[in-house]
Amino acid sequence: MKRKSLQQSISSITYVPHHLILFHPWQSPPGKPKIVRCHSPEKEMLACWWKPGSDGGLLTSYTLLYSKEGEGQTYECPDYTSAGPSSCYFNKKHINSWTTYIITVKAINEMGSSISEPHYVEAASIGKPEKKKSNKVVMLNFISFSPGQPPGKPELIKCRSPEKETFSCWWKPVSDGGLPTNYTLFYNNEGEESFYECPDYTTAGPNSCYFDKKHTSLWTIYNITIKATNEMGSNISEPHYVDVTYIVQPNPPVNLSLALNKHTDGKLYLLMNWSSPPLADVRSGWLTLEYELRLKPEEGEEWETIFVGQRTKYKVFSLIPGEKYIAQVRCKSDHGEWSKWSSESYIHLPKEFRLKDMMVWVFVAVLSSVICLIMIWMMGLKGINMVACILPPVPGPKIKGLDAHLLEAGKNEELLSALGCQGFPPTSDCEDLLVEFLEIDDSEDQQLMPNHEKGHPNKNLKSGNKETDSDSGRGSCDSPSLLLEKCKESRIPPAEFQTPDFSETQVKAAGKSSQETQNRDPELKLPDFNSDGVKSSTWPGTQLASSQIPKGSYHNIVEVCKVAFSAMNVNVSAIRMGNEEKHPSKYSKNIETICEGEMTQRRKGESFHSKAKADQALQWLLPNEKSPFLSDKPMDYVEIHKVNQNGALAVLPKQKENSDKTEIYPIPGTTKEYAKVTRVVDNNVLVLMPESRVQGMPVFQEPPKESAQSLHQSQAEKNMSYCLTAPSEFRLQTGGLEYMDPNSFMCSFK
Amino acid sequence: RRSASLSPSVSAGSACLLLWLCLLGKPPGLGGSLCTRGDSGCPPLSVADLFDRVIQHSDRLHRLSAKKYFLPSGNELAKSARRCHTSRMLTPNGKEYAQTIPREELTYVILRLLQAWKEPLSHFDQSTVHHQDLSDDSLSKAKEISNMVHELKTGVEKVTEKMQSMGIISNSLNGMGSSEAAGLSISNEANLMSNYEFIHCFRRDSNKVQSYLKILKCRIMPGNSC
């Protein structure tokens, strides 16, 4: 008692002046009251009760004061009686705002007064609980007050055992009816009748139950239920069956350490070490844990997961130097679930400086520099030729056939003759011939036209008609050789007049005997043509071409072709009269095939067959004008310039000095002499003669050389025109020697 | 079977000799040849090796019995698992118990469990009741399990013999015969179980055997994988 009063008096020191501290055993200031509870019995009503302290032996009066939080004004309890003794009853009128109210009780007696601790009441909802020890949660809803409901059905979420010796269960709190809900967990062991309550509600956290070692028995099935109770009722969950053996989920492993070590062969590897979770008893063999690692570079997105088994260390090779790696580890009991991943461990790998790599690069650099130096030096030694090689000089313009020396020398005649001009102005012979040519041309045209159209319908499609003069080039000398021949040797015509007859018979015979149907038409035509030619006494004249001969159209070429071939054929036939028919037929065949081949080539492209034949034919053509004079000319040496597929030879007479002047059509870049094939022996030996300086010759010589090359149609046409107007060739040539397109040399026979 | 009781010194000496033979006396050049029972050329195994083998075997056995296709979902089973015929056997149900009971008793428990299952498993495929509930797959598995149980029991017996011969455990094992008898009486009750109960009970018991073997091994030979 004394102590109590002493305590009380000490507690009331703050309120009592010093001089009043008197130890009266039965008189003292009042003790501190205490607000027991504030409760809302009905809607919008609040009642608070307090417990008085000691009254100090005197009459004590109590005053309840309340104020709003934040405001200074204090109000007094409106009603001390309605709720009972030591109570205060509030009306909604008095507490009407949604703030916290601070309520205090003051006890006053004669000796002094004391004030209780402030009690906070939230106008909106809960009043502050005074005790927190029990699970019971007191909920006050001051403003919105609804009638209570029995709780919903609780549900067990999961049960887990970290080490197969204890386990815990968690449940989901259920929606309550606004009333305090009480949860109880009951379990029943397998085989036992009675139910027990959860021994520990707290260790594992809220809404959980923890079973310690004593309460855990393995290999038995627990039947667990949860009961939720509130004032209005209770609800029981579904039973949940648990066998501890199968709910093991260990804690994650600990002490994950990463260390870089060097292997025996010098390679770096990462050694990972960890230890089992502390609770799991692996030593006694009770738990068997298996581990799993995962690694990734810091910037990486995907983890690399490695299953390790029961070991607690692992070596990782094949890591990227210079990277920062993150590693984690987790474990699992043999029949349980995987633990969570352990906390991350980091390691930073040093950048590897491999001497090998550097050496390789250094070596490569040195080698390349050495090579460059050597090349520069060599180039320097050889002079500027390399530069010229790489960047070919732009050639100055040159006219083909125009010999600069001749120009300088002022020998116009020679120059012009070199260009292939017949004689400028043309000689009287030529004029005569030309006149003759002119006369005949018309009639021949009429005769010739149908032939052409008959035999070669396609050529018209293909031919781009070049300009045709009043005297059409048809039938005129497409073969400049013939033309020139005519011009130069007036003796020829008679012979040639004769030869057509001869050839005609020969050819006819050949045609008849020919076995090839392909060449049927040309063969037939050839005699016709020949006959035509014969009729027109100036047939050879048709072969003559002067500078006035315009560029003929394509279809003329065939005619000329035929004429030329036929002439050649004649010549050849004359040569080889005694031979079997097959030779003439062959030759005629060749001619025709060549002519035909021209067409087909135009149409279909190249055919080596006809090309080769063309080569051969051209070869034979070369010495065309010479053929009648076989035996007259001596033999001479030739150079083989080129060999074609079928063994046709592009030959040149042996180069003689000062032969440039006599050259008519110098081949670009070369000074070659031309040879004429005087005869063919055994079908593959050409007996050559150096040709006389006849205009137009080179035209024929060059094609064999270039025969292997492909020709475009337009070029062929150009060539045609080129071939036709042999003397005017120099006009056609636009470029210098360097620009000479070899194809341009190609005769239309291609 | 009862081994002859020898004087402690002699038994210790023989045990040492055996140990020495086990650890060192592995005759070379036997790799590749099949080792049949009774063949003196077989390399003798140490107790640790024997234990490892036996544990592996029990592990395999348990995995086989725990396969999902063999078992329905957990909760349904749980209801019916009260009628395991081995439920009445006193077995340690926690780590502490398993570690504190004598080694001999633990060994005996293992053997009893295996014995208790020998008969029911051999009868499993013969019973018509079982045929109805399970697929052919399960039946073949049951046959396999039955063989494995038999092998495992033989293995455990061998280990026991070895241990006894080495003096690790005493010879007084309450007699193996009694375990057989107890097993027989129990196995009669196995016929009362349904298929699922049967399987579930077996699964649990195989887990027990596995755990006890591991505990026993680490009690006898701590270190290595313990």
TrEMBL record, chain A:
CDD domains: FN3
Xref: InterPro entries: FN3_dom, FN3_sf, Growth/epo_recpt_lig-bind, Ig-like_fold, Type-I_Cytokine_Rcpt
GO-annotated biological processes: cell surface receptor signaling pathway via JAK-STAT; negative regulation of apoptotic process; positive regulation of cell population proliferation; positive regulation of cold-induced thermogenesis; regulation of cell adhesion; regulation of epithelial cell differentiation; response to bacterium
Family stated for the protein in its record: Belongs to the type I cytokine receptor family. Type 1 subfamily.
GO molecular function annotations of the record: cytokine binding; lipid binding; metal ion binding; peptide hormone binding; prolactin receptor activity
Transmembrane segments: 358-380
Native organism: Sphenodon punctatus
Organism ancestry: Eukaryota, Metazoa, Chordata, Craniata, Vertebrata
Protein's membrane topology: Single-pass type I membrane protein
Keywords of the record: Disulfide bond, Glycoprotein, Membrane, Metal-binding, Receptor, Repeat, Signal, Transmembrane, Transmembrane helix, Zinc
Domain description: The box 1 motif is required for JAK interaction and/or activation.
Name of the protein described by the UniProt record: Prolactin receptor
Location in the cell: Membrane
Region (Disordered) residue spans: 447-480, 493-539
The encoding gene: PRLR
From TrEMBL, chain B:
Localization, UniProt: Secreted
Keyword Secreted: yes
PROSITE patterns to which the protein is assigned, alphabetical: SOMATOTROPIN_1, SOMATOTROPIN_2
UniProt-listed Gene3D superfamilies: 1.20.1250.10
Main location: secreted
SUPFAM superfamilies: 4-helical cytokines
GO-annotated biological processes: positive regulation of receptor signaling pathway via JAK-STAT; response to nutrient levels
Segments traversing the membrane: none
Keywords: Hormone, Secreted, Signal
GO cellular component: extracellular space
One Gene Ontology MF term: hormone activity
PANTHER family: PROLACTIN LIKE, SOMATOTROPIN,PROLACTIN
Family classification: Belongs to the somatotropin/prolactin family.
Name of this chain's protein: Prolactin
Organism: Sphenodon punctatus (Tuatara)
